[in-house]
Specification:
Chain lengths: 442, 291, 338
């Protein structure tokens, strides 16, 4: 019996059509748009002005607080302007727009392919470096990585969990990283272990990626304290709390951080970025993005610079099919539908998913038949049907009592609902409202 | 015979016991209540809309009785008539409040504001607003999903199918403010109803720079400042690329209306102007133009 | 690209499950029982089933179209399912007029008066059945003898059900084993060769249907297992305490509406609890009330009443029996101590 998390879960179709495609380097775009808020926390403060010449890897916006991250120029060229541009949310957010000229990198960055295994920095230096290099959680949550490397006083990390689950259908970027950058990944894990002072690391990988499991098992054979844990396929196993439950059997209590059960989780993409930052001095300016979808003629995994417009990635994957109905930034379960293809790739973009018209639409909503399926699939043990009603009726105190804030927005409830009710739409709204009420109370 | 007697006696005894318990309980838990609260509540319209800022008419009645000075308190549904009745009951001075009415400050109809994408989530403005900026290039404008209409208890609003915008039926609107609270975009505002229901307002809340706003919507306020300059009463201010007319200062001279390059300033219930050529922007609120 | 992009909140994929798939799934699961019913009761079963289904669908259509003024949603299969379940709970020699009254009560009062599908607190088919049982006790408790009267409808030869034989026998002082010799063997009971309502007799067909529901994941095991389990445990205790005075667990499970109720009536989505813990409590409640009515009540059978009574508790159960929240069991104690 393979391990998995203990409550709820669903089994959406895999559809990982780009799993066999190796990572290709995407040609440089003509112009990049770099939003200054690509992470959770305070937006970074812009350091450049119109007309400035920048090199790839140069800081263009400084971290705006502890929970924040530096933004580096992903290309070399001239700052075209600082403006507000429409991001994936459809709202205008400040961004730095750079016209690309050549490809000149900061001298301090080691661009060679050689594997550097020796870790010279001290744990404190590693945490500092990860912060400076603007590393954030690359699984999609974009939580600044250095914050997770600095456990609050009195809490001790016992195990480092590397998230190679990639439970979202379609996405394969982490899968490819594990296959092609295995060696770098192992060094990255050792760096994280050193920074966290732990002697045990577990790489959690779902069983639908046997090649990645085999490859990493081979690599970790001679490594002390690093093990690969194959997991039973079940969504949302990539959720932090679900993964900890699956790997260690411990459940993070409501409202608490993973460190409460002695675990720290990092995504494989983040781990690779940590390797590059610490060993190669390379800031987070490019990432692997899966471009896929039923109608895409050439599903691919691209190594793209941050700020590259989505339209260019789709072009490189064979162009937008004629009957395109929906373009999603991220996976089909938790990704955001894009209103425009001009939005840039950001640090959290794990994939671009193109759906044809016939898959783009929701079915009409019917009455709730109280079948209880949403309750049984909820991985947090919540009652989605009830939370939706409470939000609709604005009973926010009751929603809070029913643990609405524990919702991880995985979408299992809406996915399952036979009556096609927009459960998560309302729960997300209610979560926002309840969050506001809680903040105002304190 | 004795069975009948015993039954009657037992039941009578039980009844008497219950009566004694009830009497004692009502004595023990008696709460003194000002009888005027009931009187005031009687006078109020019992709409329980919350427009006064209190949860329901009863709570408002309690507040009215408790307050020494009720000039700040107003029942928007009942208006001056009800308030003077209340003042009579309580022997207090009533405040002078101008009648207000809700206005929709967005004219982004399908014609003026092209749809760039298609929203297909839950039919709720709040849900849509939590997701993204909307179907058009204007991330400030109306979503047209009708949270305000849903919130209205007085049948004073409906969605215009053609324009995709909510319409306020002026005669029904009591200015309770439910729609103002319901709108996640703060598009609806309570404004002074004005003499003969005539009023002027900027029908736009877009704070983008002029070019961006204009590109998204033909009738957006571009913050050019022409109205500000032409206003003889300093009633117009420009903030964040958006003009706002202060209804307390505005004297309804209408000088600002023709100077607006995007026809973003609306006038309501004025007689049709002579110099203007054809019909201008049909203001959102015409259905109720009684004057 | 000529069309506008669709924007909606996540998730962007759906399982493909639908209300009608679930409803038709239950109907499919009832087909073995329907065939068994046709085998045992012949033409009567056919007339009763068809009348009940047509009447329920028709009433739903009329009410939605002319009273509620909404688009009728009879194609979702819920009205047909109600009709089928109602028929399964009626004797097969019941006059058509009564079936139509039952259907009107089931759909009109049991379902639509609360707002239609999803809003009814009680199982509509059982509301209809219990209404008929109380209003027309004679017609509702004269059961055709199986097999022999296949080609008769209203004039079918009637006999008693094993449950009523047992009830009368025990109250007249006969012992359980004596009575058992008068009624069909356990095998016959399981195969359905006994008097009873149209769909409740054939235990084997109902169990087959129940397994289908479980495999298709239309229902979970919690309600059927807790209903049957609690009846078994409760009656076993009584039986072993006094073997002559009380019938054994197997008898109780195989007779009357227990299997039909446990798999198909108590599991009705709308009127059953949402959480697994709640389902277990609800199932045990049904089991216990059923046995109480059968053993101590004046009716020989109590499944319908038991389900309706527990339906009334569902809002309360949902309020207090929350699902197990993630992180509720504190396995963290060890770490915190260190």
């Amino acid at each position: 019996m393979l391990k998995t998390f203990s409550i709820g879960g669903i089994h959406p179709a895999d559809r990982k059509i780009s799993a066999e495609k190796s990572i290709e380097v995407l040609p440089l775009p003509k112009r990049v748009v770099v939003p200054v808020a690509q992470h959770i926390g305070a937006p970074a403060k812009t350091e450049v002005k119109k007309g400035d010449l920048v090199k790839a890897g140069q800081v263009i916006a400084k971290s705006g607080g502890f929970v924040s991250a530096n933004i580096h120029s992903p290309v070399s060229g001239k700052v075209f302007k600082l403006d507000e541009v429409v991001d994936a949310s459809g709202y205008r957010k400040p961004a730095v727009i750079i016209d690309v000229e050549g490809d000149e990198w900061e001298e301090s960055i080691d661009r060679s392919e050689t594997l550097k295994t020796e870790i010279t920095l001290s744990p404190e230096e590693i945490v500092k470096k990860v912060g400076e290099m603007g590393i954030v959680g690359m699984g999609g949550a974009t939580f600044p990585a250095h914050v997770k490397l600095a456990p609050p006083p009195g809490k001790k990390c016992k195990v480092l969990i590397i998230n190679g689950v990639e439970c979202e259908p379609f996405l394969t970027s982490d899968h490819r990283v594990m296959l092609e950058k295995g060696d770098e990944l192992i060094v990255g894990i050792k760096i994280l272990m050193k920074a966290l002072h732990v002697d045990r690391a577990v790489i959690g990988i779902e069983n639908n990626k046997p090649d990645a499991i085999k490859h990493l098992e081979q690599l970790t054979k001679k490594e002390q304290g690093i093990e690969v844990q194959p997991l039973k396929v079940q969504y949302p196993q990539g959720g932090e709390k679900q993964l900890i439950d699956a790997v260690t059997g411990r459940q993070v209590p409501s409202g608490k951080l993973p460190i409460e059960v002695g675990a720290v989780v990092h995504n494989v993409g983040t781990t690779l970025a940590v390797y590059e930052a610490v060993q190669k001095n390379k800031p987070l300016i490019e990432r692997v993005v899966t471009v896929t979808g039923p109608g895409i003629s050439k599903p691919s995994n691209f190594l793209a610079r941050i700020g590259t417009p989505v339209s260019q990635l789709i072009e490189a994957a064979g162009g937008l099919p004629n009957n395109t109905g929906k373009v999603i930034g991220g996976g089909p379960m938790m990704g955001k539908a894009l209103a425009s293809l001009d939005v840039p790739v950001t640090k959290g973009s794990s994939g671009i998913l193109v759906f044809p018209q016939e898959e783009a639409h929701r079915k009409p909503m019917e009455n709730c038949i109280r079948c209880g399926k949403c309750v049984s699939v909820c991985p947090m043990g919540l009652e989605p049907y009830l939370l939706m009603i409470e939000t609709e009726k604005e009973l926010f105190d009751r929603a809070e009592g029913d643990n609405i804030m524990d919702c991880i927005e995985c979408g299992s409830c809406s996915f399952t609902c036979p009556a096609n009710r927009p459960l998560l739409d309302y729960i997300r709204l209610g979560k926002g409202k309840v969050g506001q009420i809680i903040r105002n109370r304190n | 015979m004795s069975i009948v007697l015993i039954t009657i006696l037992t039941l009578a005894g039980l009844g008497a016991l219950a009566a004694v318990i009830l009497y004692l309980a009502s004595q023990k838990f008696k709460v003194f209540e000002d009888p005027r609260i009931d009187q005031v509540e009687e006078a109020l319209p019992a709409a329980n809309c919350g427009g006064c800022g209190f949860p329901g008419c009863r709570a408002f009645a309690e507040a009215l009785v408790k307050a020494d000075d009720i000039s700040d308190l107003n029942c928007p549904v009942g208006g001056p008539d009800v308030m003077s009745t209340v003042a009579e009951i309580l022997g207090k001075e009533v405040g002078k409040t101008d009648p207000m009415v809700a206005v929709v400050r967005c004219n982004g109809t399908c014609e003026h504001r092209p749809r760039l994408n298609e929203y297909e989530g839950a039919t709720s403005c709040a849900v849509a607003a939590a997701l993204y900026g909307g179907e058009t290039g204007c991330s400030f404008g109306c979503y047209g999903l009708g949270d305000c209409v849903e919130a209205c208890d007085f049948e004073a609003m409906y969605m215009d199918e053609e324009t995709g915008l909510p319409v306020i039926i002026e005669d029904n609107c009591v200015a309770c403010g439910a729609c103002v609270d319901a709108c996640p975009k703060d598009i609806i505002e309570l404004r002074k109803k004005g003499p003969k229901s005539r009023r002027i307002f900027v029908s736009c809340v877009n704070q983008d720079k002029g070019a961006v706003a204009k590109k998204a919507c033909d009738v957006a306020c571009i913050g050019c400042g022409k109205c500000e300059k032409v206003c003889p009463f300093d009633a117009i201010t420009i903030e964040n690329n958006l003009a706002y007319i202060d209804y307390d200062k505005c004297r309804l001279c209408r000088k600002c209306v023709p100077v607006c390059p995007t026809n973003a300033i609306h006038e309501i219930n004025f007689p049709p102007p002579k110099p203007k050529p054809a019909k201008e922007e049909e203001p959102a609120n015409t259905p109720a133009s009684s004057n | 690209m000529n069309q506008k992009l669709v924007v909606s909140p996540s998730p962007h994929v759906h399982s493909g499950d639908s209300v009608s798939k679930n409803m038709y799934g239950v109907i499919i699961a009832l087909i073995p029982a329907l065939l068994a019913s046709l085998w045992y009761f012949g033409i009567g079963a056919l007339i009763v089933t068809l009348t009940a289904i047509v009447a329920c669908v028709l009433f739903e259509w009329i009410i939605q179209k002319y009273l509620m003024k909404t688009t009728p949603s009879i194609s979702d299969g819920s009205a047909a399912l109600t009709g089928l379940l109602l028929a399964f709970n009626l004797p097969t020699n019941i006059p058509i007029g009564l079936i139509i009254i039952g259907a009107a009560v089931a759909i009109g009062i049991g379902k639509m008066s609360f707002g239609g599908l999803g809003n009814n607190p009680f199982n509509p088919a059982l509301v209809g059945r219990v209404f008929l049982l109380i209003s027309f006790p004679v017609q509702m408790t004269s059961w055709p003898v199986p097999v022999t009267s296949r080609f008769q409808y209203l004039d079918a030869t009637t006999g008693a059900t094993p449950l009523s034989v047992m009830k009368e026998g025990l109250s007249s002082g006969a012992s359980f084993s004596e009575i058992m010799s008068e009624i069909p063997s356990y095998l016959n009971l399981f195969m359905g060769n006994m008097g009873g309502s149209a769909g409740e007799v054939a235990g084997i067909a109902l169990v087959l249907g129940g397994i289908y529901l479980l495999v298709r994941k239309i229902i979970t095991w919690h309600i059927p297992v807790s209903v049957i389990g609690s009846i078994a445990v409760f009656t076993a205790i009584l039986h072993f305490a006094s073997p002559d005075a009380y019938a054994g667990p197997l008898f109780h499970i195989l007779t009357g509406g227990v299997l039909l109720g446990a798999f198909f009536m108590a599991t009705d989505y709308v009127s059953s609890p949402m959480s697994k813990r709640g389902m277990l409590l609800y199932g045990v409640g049904i089991g216990v009330i059923t046995v109480l009515i059968r053993v101590y009540g004046s009716y020989p059978e109590g499944v319908s009443f038991a389900i309706l009574i527990m339906n009334a508790f569902v809002p309360l159960i949902d309020r207090y029996m929350k699902p197990k929240r993630f992180g509720e069991k504190i396995k963290t104690a060890k770490v915190q101590q260190q």
